[in-house]
Amino acid sequence: MQKIISEINDIVQDEALGKGSIIPYFEEIQGRFRYLPPEALILVCEHLNIPLSQAYAVATFYHAFSLRPKGKHCMNICMGTACHVRGSPQLLDRLETKLGVKAGSTTRDKLFTLETVNCLGACALGPIVVIDGEYSGQMTPQKSDALLRRIMRSEEKEQRG
Amino acid sequence: MANIISPVELDPFETIQEAFKGPDHPSITICGGTGCRVLGSEKLSEAFREEFNRQNIQATLDFDIKTTGCHGFCEQGPLVVIRPSGIMYAHVAAKDVPEIVERTIIGGEIIDCLLYMDPQSGEKIEHEQDVPFYQFQQRVILDLNGLIDPQKIEEYIAEGGYTALQTVLSTMPPEQVIDEIKASGLRGRGGAGFPTGYKWELCRKQPVDVKYIICNADEGDPGAYMDRSIMEGNPHRVLEGMIIGAYAIGAQTGYVYIRNEYPLAVKHLREAIAQAETNGFLGRNILKSGFDFSVGIKLGSGAFVCGEETALIASIEGRVGEPRPRPPFPAEKGLWGKPTNINNVKSWASVPIIIKRGADWFANIGTGTSTGTMIFSLVGNINNTGLVEVPMGISLRDLIYNIGGGIPNGKEFKAAQIGGPSGGCIPAEHLDVHIDYESLSALGAIMGSGGLVIADEDVCMVDFARYFMTFTQEESCGKCVPCRVGTKAMLSTLERICNGEGKPGDVEYLIELGEEIKRASLCGLGQTAPNPVLSTIRYFRQEYEAHIIDETCPSKVCKGLITYSVIPENCTGCMVCLRDCPENAISGEKQKPHQIDVNLCTRCGMCKSVCKFDAIMVT
Amino acid sequence: MIHLTIDDKSIEATAGRTLLEACRENGIQIPTLCYHPALEPYGACRLCVVEIYKEEQSSRLVAACAYPCEEGLNVKTNSKAVQRNRRVVAELLLASGYDTPEIVALASEFGVKEARYKMPQADSCIICGLCVRACKEIVGISAISLINRGINKKVSPPFEETSPTCIGCGTCVLICPTGYIKLRDVFGSHSIHRYSSDYDRAQCRICSDLNMSSKFNQLIEGVTSDAASYGISGDQNG
Predict the structure, then answer these.
(1) What are the angstrom distances between the C-alpha of A22 and each of A11, A44, A160, B142, B257?
(2) Which of B301, B366, C143, C171 could join B371 in a cystine, given CB atoms 3.0 to 4.6 angstroms apart?
(3) Residue numbers of B between 249 and 268 with CB closer than 8 Å to A
(4) Taking the mean position of all CA atoms in its chain, how far away is CA C142?
(5) What percentage of chain C has pLDDT greater than the value 90?
(6) Is A130 part of the contact surface with chain B (CB cutoff 8 Å)?
(7) Cβ A57–C147 below 8 Å, yes or no?
């Protein structure tokens, strides 16, 4: 915890982020921790001298920010129109069933966070899934099974050491 | 604002142009757009370099290996074009590289199996310029996308970049720049189509010293990605347009508000800003003209509504992206309360072209009231998916069949959805419509930001409308009642219809609600949100009625109205569907026809997609 | 002075006035919900829509609370289009407010008895934002804000816990048009239902109201003597 606070403090003191808006701070913090710890909201508000209620409104309004820690692996399914007509709903169905969570939540073992995004702009390759920043195009439910299996195998290997 | 024109420094141009080898220099251009990257194009430039080193030919052949912006023909990626001849290879993999170097670069022959095949004629096409997808386009804004390395300002300058800025700063007073943009007829490319020159003039006239300009790159329309491609492939042209605009309007600071879902575009823009600063195109005393202007980047944080001007401003100011009532318009009271001019990426990118080639030239493209070119992202059920730039006024039929190559798998065209979640559907009977602002709006669609999604006969229009409503309902900021509650009410009604629970009067309710949401909503999001529903009712009312009265989904899409079953004659009992069914709803033995338990079946379609024997029937 | 026509009457208004203000000054009734004269215009409830006609443009609906008076503007405050629109908006308010007497009464004023679409959960908060704006613009505390987006938007203190910054002044309770925010006052302990921590009830040092929270008195400690010397103290009997 102490370490988190000191890291947040480093970000808060970063002058390049300016004094105008909380959003660049949130972006930095979200980038570093993949969520906004409550301490971050409080420290940024103190630094910028704005009410905490405003920061909380911003943190809950924008989809890029999350107030809960994310799983080890983030799966993002593109729900853009082009992906939709090429079958992204079936893909999402499949991943929700396989992972046992609904879009927007994290598995109980904290291994996966399943999310949707409204168009990544790679429409020619739909449906698209992004796992930990890596794009996979022309996905099918079968291919998504294979992707999951691959991650699970590497996780098992890691656990065995 | 100084109106006095002082001599402009020419140095950066001369030194850069001398150092650069010129556009006709032999090069291998590899598409580095997001689409081709996903398909593995990043490995290609490395592979080409390695192969050149291995064969030790760099010194003798003097070929440039360039990663360029998006070529547009994403379906065929990764794309490699060898210039100046224009030989185009599609679906290139790293393993193909040694052969390309050996046979094409050194040997000068064409590798047949890497060529693109026209799906209409079945012919292989050797050169990029002969591919129908490019042949019928008029690439004005995207012209340099496949040619230059977007990370090098020298390449943009060598192609005539920043000369429009030089002309403006050395010969044109701000009013003349505005007159030129007015004369060009350029209308805002973000969707609404407000004349750009008049918008600038309104902002210029404000008796305030501090002014801002903003480039709206919050491309949120699902299914449109041309703004991303321009910023990735030619960021300097956007910057040049902004600098010229800032000079005309009298702004000292500009921002690019860009989606954080576009990391590559952000990177290229950041680099471009730094290079422009180093070369004296941005910063203090630009080209020694006395004009100061700087550009910063603001990241969007995942809210579609921030494409609306006042919400965008709220977001830059660090607040929740809620629109506010207009007037006052941003031109009067915008960012931090100062006059602010906001234009879309494509509008800014058009500016240097208008200055360079003249307002008349630009105005001669397109139709009387819709001038210039428009970029569409042609996606969905279409053979040639990708970005296309065409003159305004082109017919939808030409766009779909000549450029897009028609509908795949021999299916019938059903509708073109244009303008995304704010737009509408155009059915087959209007395929000959000329695409301009007025004609589209007469048909209940809008130009929007250029998303063009093609739906074939298998797309259920009620489900399609439900999809867009889900989107807008999720993206509504929730401030005003009609949009917050109204979109939810429309969505719930559509969901009921799709689940087979529709009742008589639902369609009339959707129309009444839709019309009033359009009239009453606070901002553009709510004012256009009902369009996809209203336009599908207008052209495909019989599909709605089939769902409600006959309780069938004619396209066999809506889960509440279909059942999956096995055709015993076709089923070989291979057990594949049985194993893959996520609900274990399929039973049966090896080599005997399987059965689907309709009570367990969730109609996910998995069995149909894995069956190799066409033994799954949807009714 | 600006000249405009409202409901076929020629009207003069000072520059900067909104259509709503001009109407009310001239005795023309316009229904409102999210409007309050002490707060900045917000334009969210859309009940105050009026139809405006500008030369050569087709008519459109605008929120009277936020639209400024413009020279030569022709305004209809009760046209067919306006009535139709208010009816639909009232019906949408009823979608979640079907258990709230204030909303039911308002809807029936527009002839709406039943909402064709009902939210699964009744809710008397209509997201008019009056409490949030009063807390910010009048009280200056910003203890609460509108959180989340779209249909999930709601009024809440940070982290959806009781707010340590709320002073329990009760402004939000007074300004809430539907009775959603309540003052809870049990055994001398005082709190704003859902928002503030419990505070001891105390007598206000300025106006001697008995329903003030002790936190509020602490906050105004420094200013009371000044206030008293300017004669604005309500505690005249000392």
Answers:
(1) 12, 7, 42, 36, 15
(2) B366
(3) 260-262
(4) 15
(5) 66
(6) no
(7) yes
Confidence of residue B22 (pLDDT cuts 50, 70, 90): low
The minimal CB distance from C143 to the residues A53, A55, A60 is found for A53
Query: Domain limits at C11?
Result: 2-78
Closest approach of chain B CAs to the CA of C125, in angstroms?
12
The verdict on C33 and C112 lying in the same domain is no
**Share in percent of chain B as helix, strand, coil (round to 5):** 45, 15, 40
Same domain (yes/no): C51, C112: no
Structural domains in chain C (count): 3
- Count how many pairs of residues, chain A against chain B, have C-beta atoms within 8 Å: 147
CATH number of B24-128: 3.40.30.10
Say what angle helices B481-498 and B506-520 make with each other, to 10 degrees.
160
Q: For residue A45, what are the contacts with CB-CB under 8 A and spacing of at least 6?
A: A22, A51, A52, A54, A55
pLDDT digits (tens, 9 = 90+) for B277-315: 999 999 999 999 999 999 999 999 989 999 999 999 999
Amino acid symbol at B256: V
Domain boundaries, chain A: 2-61, 73-160
Give the number of residues written for chain A.
Answer: 161
Q: Which fold does the domain B153-363 belong to in CATH?
A: Rossmann fold (3.40.50)
What ipTM was reported for this prediction? Answer: 0.91
Neighbours of B584 (CB within 10 A): 10
Q: Are residues C100 and C46 in the same domain?
A: no
CATH number of this structure's domain B461-550, picked from the four choices 1.10.10.10, 1.20.1440.230, 2.60.40.1120, 3.40.50.720:
1.20.1440.230
Report H helices in chain A. 2-12, 23-33, 38-48, 52-61, 81-85, 88-99, 141-160
Is the pLDDT assigned to residue B530 strictly greater than 60?
Answer: yes
Contact check, Cβ <8 Å, A53/C149: no
Give this prediction's pTM. 0.92
What pLDDT is attached to residue B574?
93
Q: Which residue has the tokens 């429409």?
A: A123
The domain made up of B563-618 has a fold known as: Alpha-Beta Plaits (3.30.70)
Helices (H), B115-256: 132-135, 153-158, 163-171, 174-184, 196-204, 226-233, 235-249
CB contact under 8 A, C92 and B519: no
Prior bond of A89 cis (ω within 30°): no
Residue B242 Cα to chain centre, angstroms? 20
What's residue A1's pLDDT?
74
What tens digit of pLDDT does each residue of B431-449 get? 999 999 999 999 999 988 8
pLDDT at residue C216 is higher than 80: no
Please give the mean pLDDT across all residues of chain C.
85
Are residues A27 and B299, on separate chains, in Cβ contact within 8 Å?
yes
Tens digit of pLDDT for each residue in B157-191? 989 999 999 999 999 999 999 999 999 999 999 87
The CATH H-level superfamily of A73-160 is Glutaredoxin (3.40.30.10)
- Cα–Cα nearest to A52, from A39, A66, A65, A63: A39
Give the mutation candidate from A35, A66, A84 for the B interface (greatest B CB count, under 10 A): A84
Q: What is the pLDDT of residue A35?
A: 94
Is C122 within 8 Å of C128 (Cβ atoms)?
Answer: no
Q: For residue C105, how far is the Cα from the chain centroid?
A: 17
